[in-house]
Design brief:
Strand order of the largest sheet: 3-2-1-4-5-6-7
Distance between the termini: 19 Å
Low-confidence stretches: none
Number of strands: 13
Radius of gyration: 22 Å
Strand content: 15-25%
Order of helices and strands: EHEEHHEHEHHEHEEHEHEHEHEHEHHH
Number of helices: 15
């Protein structure tokens, strides 16, 4: 049986916060990973796409319909004999739609978060999204809230497929000790992750448990503000900023912690989470999640069963939940083990890839 060739279009090559896209390289196709911009100009393990031979340059001069980046992509897709395109993010699909339609290649589009939540993006891409919805064989979303947003944007419900990301299987082998006072936060330092609110909640924990500590993994534009906040609160010795960590290092930190904390909120511009992979990873590692009723989080974390949830911006309630896992014996272990069991049953990477594989295979046959 001949293996079909799938081109994955992604704006970036290997962003540390986009492990979900890197996981798509495990799909059972001949993968060609294109990256660098909404119209990608690089092919992984290959030369820059914009290197043209003389005949290609002649054809480009004759065909002014496409720009340089589009011509380069057309030439590469032809050379690689691509059977289907998986576009990561809505704007990527919009930018490459002319090329894909010109070559009559089937397309599946995967929305992830900002592309289905930021108000300006939804407004700017309103009409272009409709063209993508009309052409695409399937549209993948990661939460019920995102599904509703994409339907409101004009996507036919029958084209939508909901598939929550799955954590790396190695997280299922982690075993937290549950006997520390360490809380762990993993995520970019951006408004929708609200790392400052996590810090404010943790400060209230220290009033009761002065030996507790908070480890924060990641980087981003709010890092300087968060560091200043920690200094102003006088808790420098209890909060550690680790920067970007490898997956292995994050797993080790999870084993050393009593709970995972993330106070996600809707940003002022509308930016929201999809379903945070780090939340799924923590649950797979049997680490209880303390987070907010935000986007896809309550679809994967059940309050008082697999984790503890609060309303967005309710710092006091988040602090109380953090105190609960320190005060109530075996609560952390109970929530963590229940979370692992639920993720293992409903949200594995294998399940996510199977759903995606089926959607792509069906798009190829339409």
């Amino acid at each position: 049986m001949i293996t079909k060739t799938l081109a994955i279009f992604s704006p970036s090559h290997n962003s540390y916060s986009e492990t979900f896209i890197q996981a798509h390289k495990k799909l059972p196709f001949n993968i060609k990973y294109y990256y660098d911009g909404d119209i990608p100009v690089k092919l992984e393990n290959s030369s820059n796409l914009s290197q043209f031979n003389l005949w290609q340059k002649v054809k480009m001069n004759l065909n002014k319909k496409f720009n340089l980046r589009e011509h380069a992509l057309i030439n590469s897709l032809k050379a690689e004999k691509v059977d289907c395109v998986l576009a990561e993010y809505g704007p990527t699909a919009c930018a490459t739609l002319r090329v894909v339609k010109h070559l009559k290649i089937p397309m599946v589009v995967h929305f992830h978060g900002y592309d289905a939540s930021i108000k300006s993006v939804l407004a700017d891409y309103k009409e272009r999204y409709k063209k993508v919805f009309a052409y695409a064989g399937a549209i993948i979303v990661v939460s019920q809230k995102m599904r509703e947003t994409i339907i409101d944007a004009g996507c036919p419900a029958e084209k939508l497929i909901m598939s929550v990301y799955g954590p790396d299987p190695d997280f299922f082998y982690m075993q937290p000790s549950y006997n520390t006072q360490q809380f762990l936060a993993v995520g970019r330092f951006v408004e929708k992750k609200a790392p400052d609110l996590t810090i404010l909640a943790f400060k209230r924990v220290l009033d009761v448990f002065p030996d507790a500590n908070l480890v924060m993994v990641g980087e981003g534009e709010l890092m300087p503000r968060c560091k200043k906040l920690v200094t102003d609160l006088g808790i420098d010795t209890q909060v550690e900023f680790k920067g970007v960590q490898t997956t292995k290092e994050i797993r080790m930190l999870m084993e050393e912690s009593i709970a995972f904390v993330q106070h996600s909120v809707v940003a002022q511009n509308g930016d929201s989470e999809g379903t945070p992979v780090a939340v799924l990873e923590a649950q797979a590692a049997a680490l209880p999640v303390i987070a907010t009723y935000h986007a896809g989080i309550p679809e994967v974390v059940i309050h008082d069963e697999t984790g503890l949830l609060v309303k967005e911006h309710d710092v006091e309630a988040m602090a109380k939940n953090m105190l609960r896992v320190l005060q109530e014996k075996n609560l952390s272990k109970k929530l963590g083990e229940a979370g692992r069991a639920r993720v293992m049953k409903n949200f594995t990477l294998k399940n996510h890839l199977n759903i995606l594989e089926l959607a792509i295979s069906e798009a190829m046959t339409k």
